[in-house]
Amino acid sequence: ADKLYLTNDVRAGRSVLHLMFTNATAFSRYMGGESISRAEQAVRLGTIHSFDRRGDILFMDDFENGVIKWGTILATGGSTATSDTTYARSGAKCLKMLTGATTGDSIMLGWYGAYPVLSKTGFEVSFTSASTEYIFYLYSIVHDGSNKYQAQVLCDLPNARLAYVNSVGATTKIATLSLYAALGLWNPFKLVIDPTQKHHSRIILGNTEYALSAQPLYSEASALAPHLEMRILLETGGNAAKTVYVDDAIVTQNEP
User: Fold this and answer.
1) Within a 13 Å sphere around the CA of 54, how many CA atoms are in the beta-carbon half?
2) Using one digit for the tens of pLDDT, what is the confidence trace for 200-234?
3) Residues with Cβ < 8 Å from 12, sequence gap 6 or more?
4) How far apart are the C-alpha atoms of 17 and 7, rounded to whole Å?
5) Looking at residue 37, what is its pLDDT?
6) What is the pLDDT of residues 118-136, one digit of tens each?
7) CA-closest candidate to residue 193, choices 173, 158, 221, 167
8) Beta strands in the chain (DSSP E)
9) CA gap 171, 161 in Å, rounded
């Protein structure tokens, strides 16, 4: 039979109501009789994995516990990365990235993961800003013990372009970029690579997907032990400090 029970979360100082269903049909009755996918079920129950639902989750961070899961790799000109409650795509907190006030000032954060069974790997965040004078980057990096394979994509607002860094290190335009600057309007941004083939796979920005499967990853020799790295970089595009809010970072594997 379906069950309803209450538990106490001592650390959070609250009670939690749990629903247990005997099967998918019972869950469907609870959801109003609809026939819905497991991904939709998860979204309705509050997961942050609500934009591009493909892939299996390796890591998720809604920044409700601050920025403790990320390391600062680069911070120039007084740039900072802090937990913030002003805006949030989900929950009550997000990551606030603030650059210094000189052109090129940057803040970069990195997440590190254990080396997985290789498959197509995704990295997604959502971001919002009132400015159009900044460059926002995503990196997906695989170290295999002998080489480093890196994908780097960027929303370059000062130059109105969505771009990626190709296999020889040159920044290459993918499309003309126009983002509406409004705080609270969250732009989903996702990068998918294929480390088994050492190629890009696709980029998604908002409602548009760009195929990059013909483009090899940038690579260089590296003796670092095998691991994954995902990085977020914000760079000011002018002589003024720029703020971008980031939320709902997701790393996936087994992407189609």
Assistant:
1) 14
2) 999 999 999 999 999 999 999 999 999 999 999 99
3) none
4) 7
5) 60
6) 999 999 999 999 999 999 9
7) 167
8) 3-9, 14-20, 56-61, 71-75, 80-84, 94-98, 106-114, 121-128, 134-143, 147-156, 161-165, 171-176, 187-194, 199-205, 208-211, 218-221, 227-236, 243-253
9) 11
